[in-house]
Amino acid sequence: MRPRSLVLFTVALVLAGGTTLIARGWLAQQAAKAAALAMPKAAPARSVLVARQALARGQILRPQDFSWQVWPAGRLEHAYILAGTRPIKAFAGWVARDPIGAGEPVTETKIVAPGNRGFLAAVLRPGMRAVSVPITVTSGISGFVFPGDRVDLLITYPVRLKDGAGDPTQHKAAETVLRDVRVIAIDQKLVSKDGEATVAHTATLEVTPKQSEIIAVASQMGQLSLSLRSLVNSGDHRLADSTRGNSQVTYTLDSEVSPLIANPMSSKGNSGEAGVTILRGGQHSEQPTRSQPASRGL
User: Fold this and answer.
1) How far apart are the C-alpha atoms of 277 and 243, rounded to whole Å?
2) CA dist., res. 160 & res. 286, Å (int)
3) Most distant CA pair in the chain: distance in Å?
4) Do 172 and 227 touch, CB atoms closer than 8 A?
5) Phi, psi (rounded to 5 degrees) for 287
6) Which residues 6+ apart lie within 8 Å of 275 measured at CB?
7) Contact 28/36 with Cβ under 8 angstroms?
8) Rounded to an integer, what distance in angstroms lies between the CA atom of residue 276 and that of residue 204?
């Protein structure tokens, strides 16, 4: 065989072998694609809204009470709230209709939206009442009291105190009448828009029947104010009426605020006991009392 023919034969043989390998590779790739298409696709994982911690019945909900959790596709229920349908902050101000355990999926049958029928009944704990009190820009802490916060209720009203000579003199007094009361609504709004401060005219409080009577009388005696409490020191589940014993009653006279006003409690010949005249409409009543000066230290 001539050398030229041998070279051509060798080149033809190499080309034939390469073509065969390429064809086999392409056929294997197409077979793999066909097998992949024939296999059923796994359903994509979805996230559902769950309670980050245990939620009690009647609890006013906040965004930090929820989180998104990946849930098996085969265990998804129609009532679950899926990620992408609504943001978590959309549920701020809702109320738990029933207790929800930590990590349990949240459904709209377990929570109530503000304004829906049954909202107020759900937010009130058993035996409690809802009472609205008038507030102003200053007495309402400039709009920074929100549903779910806890406050003390103060009253400012005029009193007549007898001086050392026995002559009655009108003074101003402030007294804390209720402590650790939960706010459930501000100006008919059960949730504030994106945490925005709103100057309100009324605040709705959750109180016991006895406390509702105290508020009814206090609203006729003088001006009511709210004092915001720290969430750390509040007792969320205390249902007992506020006691009116000596250890709980505190008040402050105008003479303790300004040194320009004479203190009738320290008049000559007065041992610390003084008569207090409480004005209620056109009537007044007198009772002895002992001053409890407010601390002026920082």
Assistant:
1) 22
2) 9
3) 148
4) no
5) -155, 145
6) 161, 162, 168, 286, 287, 288, 289
7) no
8) 31
Amino acid at 94: W
Q: For residue 169, what is the DSSP state?
A: E
Q: Is the CB of residue 177 less than 8 Å from the CB of residue 155? A: yes
Backbone phi, then psi, for 56, in 5-degree steps?
Answer: -90, 155
Q: How far is CA 274 from CA 167, 239, 267, 268, 293, in A?
A: 11, 34, 10, 12, 14
Counting Cβ atoms within 10 Å, is residue 40 exposed (0-12), middle (13-18) or buried (19+)? exposed
* Residue located via tokens 């320290």: 266
How far out from the chain centre does Cα 225 lie?
Answer: 20
279: amino acid identity, one letter: L
pLDDT tens-digit profile, the chain (298 residues): 567 677 666 767 777 777 777 877 777 887 777 776 665 555 556 899 999 999 998 888 989 999 999 988 777 888 899 988 889 988 988 889 889 999 999 998 899 887 777 787 888 888 899 998 888 765 556 567 888 889 999 999 998 887 666 677 888 899 999 999 998 887 755 455 555 555 668 888 999 999 999 999 999 999 998 888 887 765 444 434 444 444 466 788 888 888 878 777 665 444 444 555 555 555 555 655 544 444 444 3
Task: Determine what percent of the chain falls in helix, strand and coil, rounding each to the nearest 5.
Answer: 25, 30, 45
User: Is the pTM for the entire model greater than 0.85?
Assistant: no
Closest among 93, 88, 119 to 198, alpha carbons compared: 93
